[in-house]
């Protein structure tokens, strides 16, 4: 049995030696192929990453362009709305001025009608105005169109 053990040990040792040699040979054969495969996969990953980065930049540019267009449209719409508001405001102010003028004309008509038969009151107001005046001069045109310059010096 001793010889069997030696033969078995020698056979095992030879098997392990050839297994190691074959393993080293397989590694030497497969290592360059694995490196080539690994580099190819890294290249593909880098290419995909570059494509995605490019796509992201394109989408960001599109979004920015869309936002710029929307802002421009909003500015135009705002300007149009402001213009329309100014037109409406101007029309309203014009109507208010017309109504104010009508009211003033009506007030003047009423005052004019009430003063038509009151010459004594008008003369009283005129005299009171002359009396309340503060050294004012009154220029009265004459027939030649020249004013009498010393009419208010009597005070």
Structure description:
β1 (140-141) and β2 form a beta hairpin. A two-stranded antiparallel ribbon has the order 1-2. The model has no long low-confidence stretch (mean pLDDT 85). With 155 residues, the protein is mainly alpha-helical. It is 83% helix and 3% strand. It has helices spanning 2-115, 119-132, and strands spanning 140-141, 147-148.
How would you describe this structure in keywords?
single chain; 155 residues; mainly alpha; two-stranded antiparallel sheet; 2 helices; rod-shaped
- Dominant shape: rod-shaped
- Rg from Cα: 56 Å
The tally of beta strands, per DSSP, is: 2
Q: In what order do the strands lie side by side in the largest sheet?
A: 1-2
Terminal-residue CA separation:
166 Å
Structural class: mainly alpha
Order of helices and strands: HHEE
DSSP helix count?
Answer: 2
What composes the largest sheet?
2 strands, antiparallel
Write the layout of secondary structure elements.
Blueprint: H1 2-115, H2 119-132, E1 140-141, E2 147-148
Antiparallel strand pairs: 1-2
What's the gist of this structure?
The protein is mainly α and 155 residues long.
